[in-house]
Design brief:
binds zinc ion; alpha+beta; about 120 residues
Length: about 120
């Protein structure tokens, strides 16, 4: 039984024969110079995109520049009036005030708890 080894063949270490016309010697000095170029890349301003949803969000107030958790309030919006109109249209005119009492039918307004500035709105439509 003969074992196969993964050792390289002794001929692999021998450099290939030079071709006629090939000049052996030190590499070209111009090519061997290392050129280091430093490029300064200005950091882009970080823009935080906040999506205002139903719940309060942590956001930096543009008015007082403090990081706050927004206060949520509900205001009547397009959906509120649309539902009221549809209820009147289909004969439920006695119940058409209900969308004005249901938070799920109103737009959401996020305000800053410190300065009261409006940070953003979330429309239902
Ligand atoms: Zn504020």
């Amino acid at each position: 039984m003969s074992e196969k080894t993964d050792l390289p063949h002794p001929a692999d270490d021998v450099p290939p024969p030079s071709y006629p016309g090939q000049v052996e010697g030190p590499a070209d000095v111009e090519d061997s110079k290392m050129v280091v170029t430093y490029t300064t890349i200005a950091a882009a301003p970080v823009v935080h995109v906040v999506s205002y949803r139903e719940g309060p969000v942590r956001v930096q107030c543009g008015q007082c520049n403090e990081e706050v958790v927004s206060t949520v309030s509900y205001k009547q919006g397009i959906l509120t009036w649309l539902l009221c109109f549809l209820m009147c249209l289909f004969g439920c005119w006695l119940c058409c005030w209900i969308p004005f009492c249901v938070h799920g039918c109103k737009d959401i307004v996020h305000t800053c708890p410190k300065c009261g500035a409006i940070l953003g709105k979330h429309s239902r439509v």
